Amino acid sequence: MAETVSDPIPVRLHLGAHAPTAGLDLSGVAVVGDTMFLAPDEGSSLLRLRRVPGGSLDWEDPQEVPLHDAVGLRGTPEDEVDAEGLDVVDGCLWVAGSHSAKRRRVRPETPLDEIGERLARVSPEKSRRVLARLPLREGPDGCVTVPAGEEVRGLGVAARLPSGKRGLWGALAHDEHLGPFLGIPGKDNGFDVEGLAVRDASAGGGVVLGLRGPVLRGWAVLLEVAVHADGAELALDGVTKHFVDLEGLGVRDLARDGDDLLVLAGPTMVLDGPARVLRLPGGAAGPLPPATRAEELTLVTEVAVGRGCDRPEGLAALPEGLLVLHDTPAPHRLDGEHLVGDLWHVSGRP
């Protein structure tokens, strides 16, 4: 059964010099109060916006948040993190990189006799293996991150999961379902983290990661990752798999909505659709069952997708409704230095 939703309402994000006309695609979004954090598809920085005062749905004042300044990362600030999943809970911003390998892109101007050579080049992209917890401090303009190593009272310092054997990569290296896909590029149905939702301590804690791929015979995968902070490191306590029947689609983002977990579902491969928002009842309130069948999910809304553009990538639950942002935005979403997202009012939300 589908939920009752309004027609999408436009939400304008002022991105300044980071506007999509400068090449920005967005892969993740999280909102706390009047502060919004965005995950650009490239680079190693996030963006922070604040809500336009006066009850507006629009956002302004873009500020760059370099992740290398906020938490200790491997490599250099020029290395791509490919941040995909964001969430804010218990005063901390959580960030997940895609963890995916990358195949060389074929561009329109690539000569035909060079396409095969480019497609043979795969790089492991170790800089993308990021799962980090950043404590936030309340400032005059909303929540802000603090420099790496600076302690926030009651929250500690920024911490990240190791990217090697003691992290997620090592835990899954010999997994019967996911191990064979770790070295396969994300856009080839390889291992690719694209969603993140964190339960608060009252709900048992735990980080839920949604995988764009692999999709296994139509079943997508959620990972429940148990961690605890040990100084500037997140120590891994365990990983549990949960299989969810998205009818062939993968996870493009996750969001908490009361006790429920919202899933933005879309293709794992480079395709234009379909895309939809689904509700997993109780998914944010406690441990997930081993598997969820398609009929146990509630369809919130189908999301329109463009031809070669407008691919839904970011999902956030706001008090006013559900916000969806797009990768490769269509021309009608670009207005100077503004990006236009969609907000749906959903009746009967928790």
From TrEMBL:
Residues 25-340 form the DUF3616 domain. It comes from the Bacteria. This is DUF3616 domain-containing protein. It comes from Actinomycetospora lemnae.
